[in-house]
Every structure is written in structure tokens, then in C-alpha cells.
Amino acid sequence: MKINEFLAEINMLPEAVHLLNELQESGRIGEEEYQENKLLYEKDRALFYEKILLEKDYRLVFLYYLCRMGAETYDAYEKRGISREIFRDTFYDLTFWCENCFLEYGEYGIDEYDWFFRHMKLTIFRLGRMQFEIMDSRWNFTAGERMVKKGDPIISIHIPQGEKLTLESVKESIVQGMAFWGKEMPYLCHSWLLYPGLKDILPEKSNIIMFQNQFQIVETDWDEREAEWRIWGKVQRNLNVYSENTSLQRAAKKYLKSGKVLGSGLGILKPEYFL
User: Where does the record place the GNAT-like C-terminal domain (predicted)?
Assistant: First the structure.
């Protein structure tokens, strides 16, 4: 798949498409340089990142490389018999993160560039509302009869931004994830959505709490501040600057100002999904 077809496939932001076309047409990144840097990305991502970060408009350059390499993974999808719909839904992540980059930095590109090696290696797929990534566990814990050790293969569940996280969409997505990856491995989720303290500020029937109830929480990360970033778009030192435009923002701000924290939780999908 060519990059322009790919950009249309993932509905990339028109302004970003224009800038990418200008970058491509300028000849600034020649074919030989692209192939050289693509090989570097495959062999040593850290070194690739260091090299691109030297560019003045590095966020846009990251977007160019990730989109072009993403387009080239379509052949691998076809060989594995993975649908074009899953390909499109999975790589739509680039559009989300390009939009986030513009909102945070005022420029089109990718700042969370280290997230996308999963997409290139075909270890993560969006199946319905959620993403499912095969990876080695970073945690040791026991949940009922299930023991998980560091290094064990697991399926990590991620929740991309976008549509509402309804209980129906969550359950449908889990069914799709298990149809794709099977039921042998444990399904884990590490997210601010699983922070137990959210039950103190959200109603029992909220989408977030109903999502949380699908998991057994096995660990809590008190220092992680992803919740603040997700709720307000930026982590601030001064809590007073946080907006109060939604009920969640108002409740979360009040919670934080009371001296409490909004961390993250690690959960394992409850046993009933494996029956």
C-alpha cells in the first residue's frame, strides 16, 4: 500500500496530509535515506529516535516514517489473513496521536513515537472498541488460581481514545479479542481506568466503573498521573488551573484538592470470560 492510500485509509487529518505531501514532494527524504532509516528502525529503534530528534520538525518527520512504514505492513496483514478493517482500525492510532500532538504542541506530527513499534511488528490489533497486544508480562502476581510471572506471555488490553466505553462495546471487544488471540493467556489491563479510587468519585453505573468491574484489581500504582493527562489533556503542578467543564473534571479536581491522588491499577480479566 502506498502512503497516500494509507493516509486516506486511516482518515489522517487534512492539514497533516498536506504537510506530509509537501515533505515528500520536496525530496528532503530520498528513497535511499528512507530505506536506510527504516532498516535502522528495525535494528535499533533508540538510535533511530536519536537521529530523527535532531530534525527541527522531528514530530512531522516521525509521522512520515511511521505512516510510510505502516502502509508497508499491509502486505503482512494480507499474508496472515487479517482483514483490512482491522488494519484500518489499528493504524487509526496514528490519526489519534497526530491530533493529540497538535493539541499539545501546536504542530502536526507524532510525539508518542515509541508507541508504534507494536503496530509495525503486528503484536497489537484493535478489535472493536479496544486494542489487544501480545507481550511478556512485566508483573508478578497471583489472582485466584491464576499465577502470572514476569516474562509470561499475556494479552495486554489498551483503551484507545474516541468512542464511549460502554459495557456492551467492552464485552463485544473482549469476545473479538479472545476469538483472535485465544483464551490460554491471561488478559491484563494497566490503566488509570482501573484505579480503585475512581469508585469514590464516579457513580456505580458509570461506563468507567462498569469497565473496571470486568477486572480483578491486583496492583495499584499510586505515582502514575495518566488520569490527570487523560481527564485534562495535560498534567499541571497547580491543581487550581484544571478546568471544571465536565462532571468527571469537577469530581476529580475536588478529589485531588482533598490531598488524594489519581493513580493507575493493574487488573486481570475476570474468570467468567474464560468459561
Answer: 124-269
Q: DSSP state, 185?
A: S
Q: What is the pLDDT of residues 219-240, one digit of tens each?
A: 999 888 989 988 998 889 899 9
Taking the C-alpha atoms of residue 88 and residue 6, their distance in angstroms, rounded to an integer, is 9
Could you tell me if 126 and 86 are in contact, meaning their C-beta atoms sit under 8 angstroms apart? Answer: yes
DSSP secondary structure, 34-46, as one string? HHHHHHHHHH-HH
- Output the average pLDDT for the chain: 95
Asked whether residue 193 carries a pLDDT value surpassing 90, the answer given is yes
Per the DSSP assignment, residues forming a β-bridge with 153 are 136
For the whole model, what pTM was predicted? Answer: 0.93
Q: Which domains does the chain have, with CATH numbers?
A: 1-122 (no CATH), 123-275 (3.40.630.120)
* Encoded amino acid at 115, one letter: W
Cα–chain center distance at 80: 23
The 8-class DSSP code of residue 57 comes to T
Q: Are 216 and 268 in contact (CB under 8 A)?
A: yes
DSSP state of 30: -
Type of residue found at 135 = M
